């Protein structure tokens, strides 16, 4: 019953935000690098930091994690309204990651481990943000991760928090997972959700001692890394908005439905996550399996990307 009430509350908060966004003209205007063609309300992802704040009030999550998510959300929301320089955004990310380290007692771990986890978390937050380019992809992918984390017995104590964040995804998805979205997540949504998922990934790995759970983020990770490498080879500014991720090629150049592409990404990742859970349950989730499976996924991704780019070239000739 409390979950139904919470869902209704989150939907209501989202509707109130829409009135505020409409009143103060918080909108996303399409440009040459956009995957959408109509003006849309921006910042609907504000429901994610609001949800974790509610979870904190209900005693589901600690203050360091809550403050970390809300901090990056506030800075990102300001950036959504009036673009900020890199410095305040980076500083907020550093402080937030520091709070995650504090929450998970990472400062007690070997010194050499800290910069590795720091770089991975910062990289994940930015990669997740860059992947937020078409209707439905961010919320469906986030929901896939949350559902997958919920299936792990080690996360049983965190189920109320995961359910709360999952309900926020459903509340947002009502207005985003559609042909013509009512709202976009904005940086406030994608970055706050990325930080939450990053925190939960590190927590899960530490609690289980199983590095293989990194495969839960493999679809986004491979697309983001390969795209960055391609852009570096072309001497492009990797921090500038672009349309060269595989999902953008599929949605923009190949004219696949945005929602279909979003479901393909989320569905493929969900299938991988199911396999990972099965392999771990049966004692087969080794570093050897993880490395080999990542190579296989990368090979498949490169084949698909090459096929799509070739069709794009043929279509333009």
Quick rundown:
70% of the residues lie in helices and 1% in strands. By secondary structure, the chain is an all-alpha fold.
Characterise this structure.
There is one protein chain. The chain is mostly helical. 70% of the residues lie in helices and 1% in strands. The protein is built from twelve helices and two strands. Helix 2 (47-57) packs antiparallel against helix 3 (63-81). The radius of gyration is 19 Å and the shape is globular.
Computed structural class = mainly alpha
Alpha-carbon Rg, integer? 19 Å
> What kind of sheet is the major sheet?
2 strands, antiparallel
- The strand line-up of the biggest sheet is 1-2
Distance between the termini: 58 Å
| Envelope shape | globular
Q: Tell me the strand percentage band.
A: under 5%
Number of strands: 2
N-to-C SSE string, H for helix and E for strand = HEEHHHHHHHHHHH
Mean pLDDT: 93
Uncertain segments: none
Structural descriptors:
globular, about 325 residues, mainly alpha
Question: What is the strand and helix layout of this fold?
Answer:
Elements: H1 2-23, E1 27-28, E2 40-41, H2 47-57, H3 63-81, H4 86-103, H5 113-130, H6 137-150, H7 159-176, H8 186-208, H9 218-233, H10 246-253, H11 258-281, H12 287-316
Antiparallel strand pairs: 1-2
Helix pairs in contact: 1-7, 2-3, 2-7, 3-4, 3-8, 5-8, 5-9, 6-7, 6-8, 6-11, 9-12, 10-11, 10-12
């Amino acid at each position: 019953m409390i979950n139904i009430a919470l869902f209704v509350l989150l939907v209501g908060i989202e509707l109130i935000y829409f009135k505020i966004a409409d009143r103060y003209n918080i909108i996303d205007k399409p440009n040459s690098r956009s995957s959408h063609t109509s003006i849309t309300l921006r910042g609907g992802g504000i429901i994610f930091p609001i949800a974790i704040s509610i979870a904190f009030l209900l005693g589901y999550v600690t203050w360091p994690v809550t403050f970390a998510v809300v901090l990056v959300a506030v800075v990102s929301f300001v950036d959504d309204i009036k673009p900020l320089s890199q410095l305040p955004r980076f500083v907020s990310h550093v402080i937030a990651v520091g709070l995650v380290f504090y929450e998970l007692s990472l400062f007690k771990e070997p010194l050499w481990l800290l910069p590795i986890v720091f770089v991975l978390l910062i990289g994940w937050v930015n990669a997740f943000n860059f992947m937020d380019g078409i209707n439905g992809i961010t919320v469906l992918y986030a929901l896939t991760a949350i559902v997958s984390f919920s299936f792990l017995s080690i996360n049983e104590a965190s189920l109320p928090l995961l359910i709360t964040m999952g309900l926020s995804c459903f509340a947002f998805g009502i207005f985003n997972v559609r042909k013509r979205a009512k709202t976009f997540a904005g940086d406030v949504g994608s970055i706050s959700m990325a930080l939450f998922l990053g925190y939960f990934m590190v927590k899960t790995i530490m609690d289980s001692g199983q590095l293989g759970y990194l495969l839960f983020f493999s679809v986004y990770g491979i697309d983001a890394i390969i795209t960055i490498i391609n852009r570096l080879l072309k001497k492009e500014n990797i921090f500038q908005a672009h349309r060269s991720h595989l999902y953008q090629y599929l949605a923009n150049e190949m004219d696949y439905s945005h929602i279909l592409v979003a479901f393909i990404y989320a569905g493929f990742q969900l299938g991988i996550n199911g396999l990972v859970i099965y392999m771990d349950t049966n004692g087969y989730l080794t570093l050897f399996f993880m490395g080999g499976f990542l190579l296989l996924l990368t090979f498949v991704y490169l084949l698909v990307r090459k096929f799509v780019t070739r069709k794009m070239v043929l279509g333009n000739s």
